[in-house]
Amino acid sequence: MAEEKKKRDGFGSKLGIIAAAAGSAIGLGNIYRFPCEVGNNGGAAFLLVYLVVVLFLGIPVMLSELVIGRRTQSNSVGAFKKLAPKSAWPIVGYMGVLCGFLIFAFYSTVSGWTLEYIVKSVSNSFQGKDLATIEQEFTAFHDMGWRNVMWQGIFIFLTGFVVFKGVQNGIEKYAKILMPLLLVILIVLGVRSMTLPGAKEGLAFLFKPDFSKITGKVLISALGQGFFSLSLGMGVLITYGSYVKKSDNLTSTAFSVVLADTAIALLAGLVIFPAAFSFGVKPEAGMGLVFNTLPMLFNQMAGGYWFCLIFFVLLAIAALTSTISLLEVLVAYLSEELHMKRQWATVVACAGTMLLGAFASLSLMSNTPFTIGGRSMFDLMDFVSSNILLPVGGVLIVIFVGWKLGKQKFFDEVTNENIIKAKLKKIIFFIVKYLAPVAIAIVFISGLIK
Ligand code: PHE
Q: What residues have CB less than 8 Å from 1, skipping those under 6 apart?
């Protein structure tokens, strides 16, 4: 017990939950995945649905997870075991662990790229190149499958090192300074991007919705992206919630994190789309949308060398605070439920991720054998985890809180046992109990049918 207490105190206790949860939420999901999804789903129409999702579903689901975590002081599987013993509910926790493992596997591929791009920026390797050359080099990099795997391995190792050493506290403290810096850099990049010739078209793409583009696929992608970006539906916030002090305000935490995360995503859109349209990068270009547009943008800026370098360093750190949260879910589960030593659990989780992750990286080579039904394993892992497991997890979590945990316990937790007001608690509980399950289910089913 004493040992467990110590373990829990070690994490983010001084610095507060907001930094840790925002660290988890803000990452490649905002800067890399969000523009890809906007681009692939018709622009503004997607953005609109996305905003509705994060505001009306994101906050209630996030709060539900935090409530479960803080109430039980347990990992995501243990939490359900405590609140609903001898029931099937712990399956939600297991699903989350599986999903965390899948996400970590493909997420670390892209995280590894940030390291490659740091090296490229140090050696000023984009300077003076045109779009075609930059695109070619990006493809050539994917074709060096093992180089991707190497960077991925280094990134997983870094994540493991932080979790192993239990220095999250230190990392989060840095993140608290560095993430606002990321915000500032994005604003500067946004201004440059929006003043490029032809930038207006990009803005129109982002903000002028064509409602006929809202299809089942768009709905489910927006739902998946919302959950992915906010780290919802798989137990990150249950796990982090379990480390939160009883005196912290959960509702304001949820609001702050959702706002910060959404602001960063929107800014990323404002950086990428005007520039992409100006340079002639197609909005459907997927990964290239970000990784090819940005170097081009830096090339058009005074001090581009430094902007490029600082940007990719910050992006790597943003990714790291997200992978830490993914690994934390796995480690908390392995150490508390399977009684592995924390350090040993870290090694096991990292090794497993490395193995699965290598397939994700190697599946992006042009002549890769790692495809299933014509889709790369990278895509498949992303699709299954983000668009299926997270929304299913999310719907089960709100049903659990709304119908099993119940109103009184929910109110107790969000008011810190009647110490704070939490004015919106009734409305949020109503959403948790009725609206969120129905909305997520409708979106999900309409997406699957298409
Ligand atoms: N939210 C993170 C991002 O946007 C990714 C993530 C998803 C982290 C799910 C943890 C759990 O980059």
A: none
Burial level of 369, CB count in 10 A (0-12/13-18/19+)?
exposed
- DSSP 3-state assignment of 139? helix
Report the nearest-CA residue for atom 10 of ligand 1: 231
Question: What is the residue with the minimal CA distance to atom 4 of ligand 1?
Answer: 29
Residues 35-48: tens digit of each pLDDT: 999 999 999 999 99
User: How many angstroms separate the CA atoms of 172 and 115, rounded?
Assistant: 20
Residue from 128, 270, 298, 140 nearest 203 by CA? 270
Which tokens belong to 132? Answer: 């075609």
Burial degree of 207 (CB within 10 A; 0-12, 13-18, 19+):
middle
Boundaries of domain holding 232:
2-449
pLDDT score recorded for residue 8: 52
What stretch of H or E contains 33? none
Best of 168, 223, 228 for a ligand 1 pocket test (most atoms within 8 Å of beta carbon) = 228
Which strand (E) or helix (H) includes residue 376?
strand 375-376
d(CA 386, CA 224): 5
pLDDT at 450: 62
Q: What is the secondary structure of 263-281 as a DSSP string?
A: HHHHHHHHHHHHHHHHHT-
Q: Quote the ligand 1 centre to 262 CA distance (angstroms).
A: 13
Tokens of 352: 């497993």
Three-class secondary structure of residue 416 per DSSP: coil
Number of structural domains (the chain) is: 1
Identify the burial level of 6 via C-beta atoms within 10 angstroms of its C-beta, where 0-12 means exposed, 13-18 middle and 19 or more buried.
exposed
CATH number of the CATH domain containing 102 = 1.20.1740.10
DSSP state of 370: -
6 has a pLDDT exceeding 50: no
Does residue 361 have a pLDDT over 50? Answer: yes
In the three-class reduction of DSSP (H, G, I as helix; E, B as strand; rest coil), residue 246 is classed as coil
423: exposed, middle or buried (C-beta count within 10 Å: 0-12, 13-18, 19+)?
Answer: exposed
Could you tell me the distance, in angstroms and rounded to a whole number, from the CA of residue 429 to the centre of ligand 1? 25
